Amino acid sequence: MRLRFILTAILALSAPGGRLLAQMPNPYGLPISLAEAKKPAAAALAEAARNKWAMTVVIVDPGGHLVYFERMDNAPLSSAMVAVDKARSAALYKRPTKVFQDTLAAGGAGVRVLHLREAIAIEGGVPLLADGKIVGAIGVSGDASEHDNQCAMAGAAVLK
Fold first, then answer.
1. Residue 38 φ/ψ, nearest 5 degrees
2. Are 70 and 41 in contact (CB under 8 A)?
3. Cα→Cα distances 130→26, 29, 61, 137, Å
4. 73 pLDDT higher than 60
């Protein structure tokens, strides 16, 4: 039964409607260092400050393990957990969490996203690339998900 569910999910996610879930072709690289992790975090925090959004920013390595964490004053306490989940999801699945959000919003077979372990269907998690390899991911939480994503994208752009 479980094997049948897994095969069904794989087929659904790779079918034309699930093409959005195609993972990034980028291979995993060496884990991002603490010094390098501070750069996308600073860019994301600067974007949040410019817009007067109180955010939490997390950087994880390719395995989803915490490398860097910073929570702005007045950011919601819950944003700490959510930012970690977004970053981990983006790293492990090699895709922005917005892809999961859009797939789920489409309904139908996209609802199966809810059963993917540690896949977060809320935008704000983005893989971090260096020399074409995934070295980690950034997760941002604290405001509307589109604002979280805007800050995450600003952070991810620093390493490209």
1. -70, -25
2. yes
3. 10, 8, 12, 11
4. yes
